[in-house]
Write a structure and sequence with these properties.
mainly alpha; 284 residues; Fumarate Reductase Cytochrome B subunit
């Protein structure tokens, strides 16, 4: 069975649902006001929204936007001062997912584009096309562990401590549960892969500081490790696709989009240069 073919059979429809859901959500938002205008058509609102976005990207405001997104969105010092435990959960989940997404993107670029299409063999591909490279193995393990720590904090705050302020927060427990399933299945798939490849693994595979020690203990068990890996990988990939498809309909999506919009609106507007007295527009 070609597990990558099965993966793409699920992932491509999930991406289509993601795009369709994003468009659907955008059409709902366009029923409101854009730039303070509510009396214009949805098409005109969309044009104004795109123009405003492009004007921000291709302007001196881009640097300010990135600083605000990184500082207020990722590091979030206000949340840190208000509630350090909630900040820890936010930083772990957000930072871990960003790290794992970057690693997956680099791996895809190396394995599916740079090596087969452009026949490139360099330091970048040698690192990210190899799951057992020291850097890749460690960062994947570290990113997964950080996400799990953040998810456990969210679950404890929601169901054990039962903090009152959780009732009013944008906590989307469906995504939390899906992320827990994805992370656990990812670790199990990795342990199965390391178990059936154990005798051929390079020494750097030990940098997978969770999967490698577990695999060294369980690899002698009479289990079909290769088949288990394939099925667990599919399970992991399918649930990842489900999360991608669900994102546009989640509270998380609206929270992130709202934060980005608020960030853009908070940036100082560029002033239109004034024309000096006595100078006509024709001279300008």
């Amino acid at each position: 069975m070609d597990i990558m073919l099965v993966f793409w059979l699920f992932h491509i429809p999930a991406m289509i649902v993601f795009v369709a859901g994003t468009v659907f959500t955008l059409t709902i938002w366009l029923q409101g006001t854009v730039n303070g205008r509510g009396d214009i058509s949805a098409r005109r609102k969309l044009f104004l929204l795109i123009r405003s976005t492009l004007a921000t990207i291709f302007s001196a405001r881009l640097g300010a936007l990135l600083r605000v997104l990184i500082w207020d969105g990722a590091i979030h010092p206000t949340l840190f001062r208000a509630h350090k435990l909630r900040w820890t959960a936010h930083f772990c989940v957000f930072g871990g997912i960003v790290l794992l997404t970057i690693l997956s993107g680099f791996s895809f670029i190396s394995v599916d584009i740079m090596i087969p299409i452009f026949k490139m063999d360099n330091l970048f591909t040698s690192i990210f096309a190899n799951k057992d490279h020291a850097i890749t193995a460690f960062l994947n393990e570290f990113g997964g562990l950080v996400v799990m720590v953040g998810l456990m904090i969210v679950i404890v705050r929601r169901y054990v401590i039962r903090e009152l302020d959780m009732r009013t927060r944008m906590v989307d427990m469906q995504i939390i549960v899906l992320l827990v399933v994805i992370m656990i299945s990812g670790y199990l798939a990795e342990i199965c892969r390391l178990s059936f490849e154990f005798e051929e693994l390079p020494a750097t595979a030990a940098y997978a500081f969770i999967g490698y020690p577990v695999a060294s203990l369980v690899r002698t068990a009479p289990l079909p490790w290769a088949d288990l890996h394939d099925w667990l990988f599919l399970f992991h990939a399918i649930f990842s696709s489900v999360v991608v498809a669900y994102i546009p309909f989640s509270k998380f999506f609206h929270a992130v989009a709202g934060a980005i919009i608020a960030t853009v609106n908070s940036l100082p507007r560029e002033e239109t240069p004034s024309v000096p007295a006595g100078v006509t527009h024709g001279q300008v």
